[in-house]
Write a structure and sequence with these properties.
Strand content: under 5%
Mean pLDDT: 86
Oligomer: single chain
Shape: globular
Low-confidence stretches: 1-5
Length: 392
């Protein structure tokens, strides 16, 4: 790998800046969202349903956007449209007066994510073909830095500004609009159009990719919404601290996430994506098991730090692995299929977690720990099918 191929591309940096600003906006909303839902009358099932719908409602759109970007050879228009739609529905979210309004507006906001995710990831993969783990790690780091900043802003507005949830969400919506500006300088990674036909199935994809999608699907069932982690911390605090302290823990999570993304992305380029993902699955299992019995502030701090590491590993490395398993001709479609299946698994994951929460929060985290461990076992059992191909 020469110095030219190791150099970070302008496309990755500009997309990273857009993600930084967009996530600054999103993460002003994310730490207060579960509390916003409960303040509007929602319970554990409402939280689980909202979390599941946010990821699964637009699952078919994700694979469609990946297909269109491969078919036309153009990625940027879909990326721009996706970020724009998200901005509009964030603003509308601020006018919610019942928990089901939150369900609707956050679900529609995910249309934007469905449009942009697969073509954006394909652009990142194509911009740094010899260092995809690093490319996705850099993007994830900027994304997470925006998340950390956004959470800090939300904390300041809650604690010092004494603003209500509606006002904070409205401000976040306007910041999301600003995130569109860097896209003006992004050059499309124009590729040769591919004459393919859209089929909502895994047929035609490489066998190794299908195997990995199977394994990662089980992990997605385990990967319960972050909102349950936030609500769990409220059990240990009262009055105003029950609103402010969970945001502090969420900031700790995002700092850990941002700090871990690039190192583990680079590590995955060196030791392999599968091994690194295995570490992420096992760490997530340990973290969720820890939330079953955590009883001190120190324990919660350590668990949120490890939670950030686990999600940094899984989020960046899974996408990098899928981009390599897909091959150059079907990269957008492969990433779209991956995101689609993960989205479909998110809804039952959210519902099961929500129903278990109504019985006991400990049941929700025990469920997640067991399935995450089983995912790691499958990743080991199928290692013969998951040999990483030559990068292209």
């Amino acid at each position: 790998m020469d110095s030219k191929t190791r150099k970070t591309s302008a496309t990755v940096l500009l997309l990273g800046i857009t993600s930084f600003l967009n996530d600054l906006s999103s993460e002003m909303i994310m730490p207060i969202l579960p509390m916003f839902i409960t303040a509007l009358g929602g319970g554990g099932v409402a939280v689980g349903l909202t979390g599941g719908v946010r990821d699964s409602m637009v699952s078919l759109l994700k694979v469609y956007s990946g297909f269109i970007s491969d078919r036309t050879g153009r990625r940027k228009p879909l990326v721009t449209a996706g970020y724009s739609i998200s901005s509009v529905f964030k603003i509308l979210l601020s006018f919610s007066t019942a928990w089901w309004h939150v369900l609707v507006f956050t679900g529609l906001e995910r249309i934007g994510k469905g449009l942009r995710t697969a073509p954006r990831d394909a652009m990142i993969a194509e911009s740094m073909p010899q260092a995809r783990g690093k490319g996705f790690g850099i993007h994830r780091a900027l994304d997470s830095m925006g998340a950390t900043t956004g959470s800090a802003v939300a904390l300041l507005l809650l604690w010092y500004g004494e603003m209500d949830f509606h006002t904070i969400i409205l401000i976040a919506g306007f910041i999301s609009i600003v995130s569109l500006v860097p896209l003006l300088w992004v050059k499309d990674t124009r590729k040769r159009p591919v004459a393919i036909t859209l089929r909502i199935s895994l047929k035609g994809l490489p066998r190794r990719l299908k195997v990995f999608i199977l394994v990662s699907s089980l992990f997605t069932l385990a990967n319960i919404s972050y909102m349950f982690f936030i609500l769990r911390t409220q059990d240990y605090f009262s009055e105003s601290l029950a609103v402010v302290i969970p945001v502090v823990f969420y900031i700790i999570f995002n700092i850990s996430y941002a700090a871990s993304s690039v190192p583990f992305g680079v590590l995955s380029d060196r030791i392999g994506k599968r091994r690194t993902i295995l570490l992420g699955y096992l760490l997530f299992s340990v973290v969720t098991l820890g939330f079953v019995s955590a009883h001190s502030t120190v324990a919660l701090v350590m668990l949120f730090l490890l939670y950030g590491v686990a999600m940094a590993i899984v989020d960046a490395c899974q996408r990098a692995f899928v981009s390599e398993l897909s091959g150059s001709e079907l990269r957008g479609t492969g990433l779209g299929a991956f995101h689609t299946v993960m989205g479909l698994m998110a809804l039952p994951s959210g519902l099961v977690a929500g129903f278990l929460w109504e019985a006991s929060p400990q049941f929700t985290f025990l469920y997640a720990a067991i399935l995450a461990f089983l995912s790691a076992v499958l990743l080991l059992l199928f290692k013969g099918y998951l040999v990483e191909p030559e990068r292209a």
